[in-house]
């Protein structure tokens, strides 16, 4: 079998083209925009009751997990993973809670999201490590 050199691509050429390219939009930016659009469409589909139910379930689960974390000494890797989880939960809860109408329930979920975020940062900084 004969290989035609026209069909071969120089891998260094591809890398330099990517590095030299002056396009301000990289794949990560496109991905972030697509995820935002999907999330906005999904949040529009949810009714207020579904949002409240979802936020309540997330809050209950996160508080139960936080209670267990406070009673258990953690190593570095576990604490980093749990911290990331709590920070993600806080961000997600805050984003959904902001779409609720103004009132005590909205404030409760927003303050709970702040609390989870603070606890996530404390875990990340090693407050619960052994």
List the helices and strands and how they pair.
Elements: H1 11-20, H2 27-45, H3 48-71, H4 76-97, H5 104-124
Helix pairs in contact: 3-4, 3-5, 4-5
Q: Can you tell me about this structure?
A:
The protein has helices at 11-20, 27-45, 48-71, 76-97, 104-124. It is mainly α and 130 residues long. It has one domain. The chain is flat and about 65 Å long. Residues 13-19 have low confidence and may be disordered.
| Helix proportion range | over 70%
Largest beta sheet, briefly? none
Give the total of domains.
Answer: 1
C-alpha termini separation: 63 Å
| Mean pLDDT over all positions | 80
Helical segment count: 5
Query: Could you tell me the radius of gyration in angstroms?
Result: 22 Å
Low-confidence stretches: 13-19
What is the overall silhouette? flat
The count of β-strands is 0
SSE pattern, N- to C-terminal: HHHHH
How much of the sequence is in beta strands? under 5%
**From the structure provided, what is the oligomeric state, counting identical versus distinct chains?**
single chain
Q: Assign the structural class, choosing from mainly alpha, mainly beta, alpha/beta, alpha+beta, or little secondary structure.
A: mainly alpha
Keywords:
130 residues; 5 helices; 74% helix; mainly alpha; single chain; 0% strand
Give me a quick take on this structure.
With 130 residues, this protein is mainly α.
